[in-house]
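step=encode ok
step=design start
structure_in=
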């Protein structure tokens, strides 16, 4: 069953230009990770410093493998200084019957 993960980022306004390059690099790796079916980025039209990264994974196992990789050899160090607050991750399964 497909899994959606939504990562909410609140960036420092003065870091937005730098963040675009950093997030692009991060998402290139994410999109190439086994089981990733895609990632969309929504930038809040009322607040350009609030970004939602919406990831689609083939399964919970693929998502878990990705999170494990990101907490180890795939750790992201460049993003932290650009953030105005801690990222918020929400995950769930897709229910096509609704």
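sequence_out=
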């Amino acid at each position: 069953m497909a899994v959606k993960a939504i990562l909410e980022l609140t960036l420092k306004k003065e870091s937005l230009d730098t963040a675009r390059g950093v997030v692009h690099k991060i998402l290139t790796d994410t999109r190439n990770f086994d089981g990733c079916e895609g990632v969309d980025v929504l930038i809040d039209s009322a607040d350009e410093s609030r970004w939602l990264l919406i990831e689609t994974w083939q399964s919970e196992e693929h998502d878990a493998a990705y999170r494990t990789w990101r907490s180890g050899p795939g750790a992201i160090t460049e993003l932290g200084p650009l953030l105005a607050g801690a990222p918020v991750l929400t995950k769930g399964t897709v229910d096509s019957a609704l």
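step=design ok
step=annotate ok -> Strands lie at 3-10, 36-43, 50-57, 88-93.
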